[in-house]
Amino acid sequence: MRKNYDFEKMKGERNPYIKQLKQPVTIRLDKATVAYFKELAGELGMPYQNLINLYLRDCALHHKTLKLKWAS
């Protein structure tokens, strides 16, 4: 390993993965839902936010929709 590096000659390069980065959002979920995903994530050994993201991504990829009927 060198003692000194010359960063003057380096050229900046844009991040090639910028389109794949996640977008931070604020979402309100009820406590029971968060508790469910936290427990499941603990069993799987992964962060619960990642688990929620994977679940929502699966729903989007498979065009899953809820069949809801709002009370009028």
Walkthrough of the structure:
The termini are far apart. Helices cover 39% and strands 0% of the residues. It is built from 2 helices and no strands. The mean pLDDT is 90. It has a domain at 27-61. The longest helix is centred in the middle third of the chain and has 14 residues, at 31-44.
- Give the overall average pLDDT: 90
Provide the β-strand percentage band. Answer: under 5%
Based on Cα principal axes, name the global outline: elongated
**Number of β-strand runs:** 0
Largest sheet: none
Return Rg in Å: 21 Å
Structural class: mainly alpha
Please tally the helical runs, counting DSSP H or I stretches of 4 or more residues.
2
Please give the alpha-carbon distance between the first and last residues.
71 Å
Please mark out the parts with pLDDT under 50 across 5 or more consecutive residues, or reply none: none
Succession of helices and strands = HH
Instruction: Estimate the helix proportion, in percent.
Output: 25-40%
